[in-house]
């Protein structure tokens, strides 16, 4: 099974956002990753539901919304109404992770649970039967351009084993430090959706970068 590339627009040029979105779509990216940050769960502040709503008609890519916000259940319905296709909520951000995921599913949107590098897979075991996707953070959340943490690979493998043994049906996404040198180890461990921000957008030719990544996960 070949993998899916999800460019993160956190590293795009916001003054040329439409160009940067269309460019990765034309290059074959299937998902567009949108990092929502609240200045509390993570230090930075980024964008909100209105921003997703304006982006929605501009692309056919799957909008993969990563909520790095405290108590995400306050916002999931707004992001669903804005046109998100997948909404991810951090287990560390709420005492009500099951409710948050259920709220996403009730809106007809794919529900994703997210774990930080310091959080074990056991913290999400009780919700693995209801999620469509698990996001394993391969850096600490909050910023683009950080280094991939190889210690996260064993959690990817553990999730793959859980899925096989218990007959669950979720995708495994990774986010942070994904580039031509790191993608293959995560693919081999069992990940099948790959967020890439700075590697795709920071230097020349995002389309070529997507092709390089795609070739490595065939
Ligand atoms: O969620 C986050 C950061 O918190 C990411 O989605 C970043 O946007 C990934 O950026 P790179 O590590 O690929 O530069
Ligand atoms: Co992200």
UniProtKB/TrEMBL annotation:
Keywords of the record, alphabetical order, are: Carbohydrate metabolism, Cobalt, Isomerase, Manganese, Metal-binding, Zinc
Q: Which domain of life is it from?
A: Bacteria
Q: Which Pfam families match?
A: Ribul_P_3_epim
> Which residues are noted in the entry as substrate-binding?
8, 66, 142-145, 175-177, 197-198
| Signal peptide annotation | none
Kindly give the InterPro entries that the UniProt entry links to this protein. Aldolase_TIM (IPR013785), Ribul_P_3_epim (IPR026019), Ribul_P_3_epim-like (IPR000056), RibuloseP-bd_barrel (IPR011060)
Instruction: Cite the GO molecular-function annotations of the record.
Output: D-ribulose-phosphate 3-epimerase activity; metal ion binding
> What does the entry comment about cofactor binding?
Binds 1 divalent metal cation per subunit.
Give the pathway annotation: Carbohydrate degradation
Task performed by this protein? Catalyzes the reversible epimerization of D-ribulose 5-phosphate to D-xylulose 5-phosphate.
The identity of this protein, by name, is: Ribulose-phosphate 3-epimerase
Species assigned in the record: Leuconostoc litchii
